[in-house]
Amino acid sequence: MTAKEAMQFIHEKVWQGSKPGLSRTRELLSKMSNPQTSLRFIHIAGTNGKGSTSAMLAGILQAAGLTTGLYTSPYISDFSERMRINGKPITDEELASVTAFCAPFALSMEDRPTEFELVTAIAMEYFARGKCDLVVLETGMGGRLDSTNVIESPLCSVITNIGLDHTRELGDTVEKIASEKAGIIKKDCPTVVYALPENVMDVISGRCREIFSSLTIADFDEIKTISDSREGQVFSYKEFENLELPLLGTHQLNNAAVALEVIKVLRSQGYRITADAVRQGLLKTDWPARFEIISEKPFFVVDGGHNPQCAETVRDNLLKYFPDIKRVVLFGVLADKDYMGQAELLNSAADVFVTITPQNPRALDAFLLADKLKGFGKPVIACESTECGIETALKLAGQDGVVCSVGSLYSAGRVRAFFGK
To answer: What is the pTM of this model?
Structure first.
């Protein structure tokens, strides 16, 4: 099997669509002799911030000398980004080999796995073959019924910021969504949580009490910002002093606080993670399309945010890092997202909207989106293609302005590719 054949196999229509449940993943992994049982995990769920938090943790653990696996979704530019060991994406040869091993087992199942379940099984085999000391494992959607939740006893369960997203699948209130995310919490295994509103925290703390999981809540009041610019942030958190983080925004300092609390849990379990490893790991954190500045004159920012919570963060960052200059928002969304909720928040930071259609069957047409945005009373220009949208936005911003592409991760890869990223 070649890498191309592996990708064709993974994307075949014989696999089921989104279908929550753990039975298929358990059956497939059992046929594969349960590679996950040889691994140790940090399991991360959340609506926003789980990818950034995962990247920070993986960087720190790698800097500490641990062979570290990282499983995330979706990807920005290439499928191989979804599973990495020590920061390096799976190679074509490895993907072909592991997929060829998994394929007959998946095909032998009467109740075929979903594509995500298949990919999760491939990742488990890849990490086992790579003899990972630790795997930072990000859920796909939710937690309780997410295929990653087949693991038994993580070293730590982590829940990042929670908001309204995937409401059809997870529930129409933050409490219901929190309950699904809290499904990754395991008996007698420690839990670290992003500081959340009381109604949400009640759900998570209740789950922890029920199954005897010790709970640590990141204390954002302990974050001391030393410097904050377009080049990055310097901060301290509790005993961790003068840390540099290239990711921008207050929310990223909050995510870092969560990661640091996880490091403290691991230290208490005997892992030797030095202050220098923490410092180097955070300094080298690379997580594309999260308020990422990829060009200047004009500035061009890419953010994959796709729900109102993300849009609020993007708005705050635009006003904070780019005050008093022309701001053009390049906006492309999926039709099943709360795109008007996003737009209403972005509106206060936008001088002009340029709309595009993301590369996804669920995308909202750019011209339909433009019609909906005209009610804000600002200029709105719809473009036939992503490339046309970028060029139009750059011209509108001029040399001294800023363009921010936001609304969907499915646009982010193509936008970054335009700039050679």
So the answer is: 0.92
